[in-house]
Write a structure and sequence with these properties.
With about 130 residues, the chain is mainly β. Helices cover about 0% and strands about 50% of the residues. It has no helices and 11 strands. The strands form 2 sheets. Strands 2, 4, 5, 6, 9, 10 and 11 form a 7-stranded mixed sheet that branches. A 4-stranded antiparallel sheet has the order 1-3-8-7, with no helix packed on it. A hairpin with a 6-residue loop joins strand 4 and strand 5. The mean pLDDT is about 95.
């Protein structure tokens, strides 16, 4: 099965930056470059929220309204990894962040639903 492992979280002051990484591994049949990847987050007492995603083939990206202009998602297919660069962090960004793989997405689009595999999550805490 597909395994996704996040890294790079931690504690940062407001206005600072963090870069999250997600490394994917799987048995034969998994071709990382042909799957869209997404980032989600969930704060205590809140619903899971779409943060950012990136398609395969075209590398089209999409961002949640609250992070547009501050976060950047990218992928390195050779490394089976996806990244989330988070700048100008705010206390409201505090959450557990998850990476996810969408095995059924079209090559040119990013979806905010229907993801099939999820990482264990990593804590990001932004102090004021």
């Amino acid at each position: 099965q597909v395994q996704l492992v996040e890294s790079g979280g931690g504690l940062v002051q407001a206005g600072g930056s963090l870069r999250l990484s997600c490394a994917a591994s799987a048995a034969s049949g998994w071709t990382f470059s042909r799957y869209a990847m997404g980032w989600f987050r969930q704060a205590p007492g809140k619903e899971r929220e779409f943060v950012a995603g990136i398609s395969w083939r075209t590398g089209s990206t999409d961002y949640g309204d609250s992070v547009k202009g501050r976060f950047t998602v990218s992928r390195d297919n050779a490394k089976n990894s996806v990244y989330l660069q988070m700048n100008s962090l705010e206390p409201e960004d505090t959450a557990v962040y998850y990476c996810a793989a969408d095995v059924n997405s079209l090559s040119t689009v990013v979806r905010r639903w229907g993801y099939d595999y999820w990482g264990q999550g990593i804590q990001v805490t932004v102090s004021s």
